[in-house]
Amino acid sequence: MSADKRTIGVLVMSYGTPESLEGVEAYYTHIRRGHPPTAEQLEDLTSRYRTIVGGVFPLRENTNRQAAALQSKLNELAGDGAYVCYQGLKHAAPFIEDGIAAMAADGIREAVGIVLTPQYSSMSVGGYLKRAREEAEKHGIRFRGVDEYHLHPQLIEALSERVNEGLEQLGGERGEALVLFSAHSLPAKILELNDPYADQLLATSGAVAAKAGVANWQFTWQSAGQTGQPWLGPDILETLEKLAAEGVRSVLVTPVGFVSDHLEVLYDIDIEAKQLAEEKGVRLARIRMLNDDPQYMAVLADSVIGAANGGNGNDE
């Protein structure tokens, strides 16, 4: 394509995932900054993928659908050609740098980056945007990044609808159910940096609970890395054990830090957490993920257009 003067590139960023079981080792090695995993580590991750999807990789498919749906929404709101979406993944091709390079090859001179997670942390969203911005500078592309959208009204609406839907599915247990909000843990050292991640997650959780009319809720962490350093806790498994000991018998997990069906949802919650809950006599359900839901696409499109017009983001 030949971009006109005002065509704005949109870099849609996600963590990335392998395309097949054969690609797990290269993917894991990239996560480990070039250090190959041990045979045990590789088998553990591969077996998790094999267990949940039998070789199909939902995050890859979801990201493709999300980028396409966001493109359609931007076309609807701003007209065809005003925005053009590209993908940039953190740990798999097309990498963040690949997405920016593709923009440059297409003649894009202005870009907005948005990450498929609502809350900001310097160790997550901040890292994505830094990589994208540095690469954009090499190509002479003016880059703006969407820092967060954790309290966007349509995001809260979409999540609250899913909470009410999940509680209805619990039937007679609705009144006794505890809504357990969760998100990916990060190294605890972010607390020393006054990082907003934890506060934004609590803000999202509180807003969703209020919108859904839920008074009985808690927040917990999940999916901590095995790095030998402290990570934010308590972990969801610890929390479920504590809740069971306190007599809670019905839990609706609401992973507000995630937007897609992927390993941390389909394995860490649907298999690992659910198994523990059953062992403790707790019925565990989970809300539907946002994936390419029209309301979520509206959130992303509104955030992108706002950033392009000088708001809700960092301008470089």
Order of helices and strands: EHHHEHEHEHEHEHEHHEHE
Helix content: 40-55%
- Strand count: 9
First and last CA, distance: 25 Å
- Biggest sheet descriptor: 5 strands, mixed
Q: What is the spatial order of strands in the main beta sheet?
A: 2-1-3-4-9
Structural class: alpha/beta
Which CATH class of the largest domain applies here? Alpha Beta
Bin the strand percentage: 15-25%
Mean pLDDT across the residues is 92
Uncertain residue segments: none
CATH topology of the largest domain: Rossmann fold
Shape: globular
The second-level CATH architecture of the largest domain is 3-Layer(aba) Sandwich
Number of domains: 2
Q: In angstroms, what is the radius of gyration?
A: 20 Å
How many helices in DSSP terms?
11
Structure, explained:
- Strands 2-1-3-4-9 form a five-stranded mixed sheet, sandwiched between helices. A four-stranded parallel sheet has the order 6-5-7-8, sandwiched between helices.
- Helix 7 links the parallel strand 5 and strand 6 (217-222).
- Helix 8 (236-245) runs parallel beside helix 10 (268-279).
- The chain is 45% helix and 15% strand.
- The protein contains eleven helices and nine strands.
- The chain is an alpha/beta fold and 316 residues long.
- The protein has two domains: 8-149 and 293-315, Rossmann fold (3-Layer(aba) Sandwich); 153-286, Rossmann fold (3-Layer(aba) Sandwich).
- It is found in: Cytoplasm.
- Involved in coproporphyrin-dependent heme b biosynthesis. Catalyzes the insertion of ferrous iron into coproporphyrin III to form Fe-coproporphyrin III.
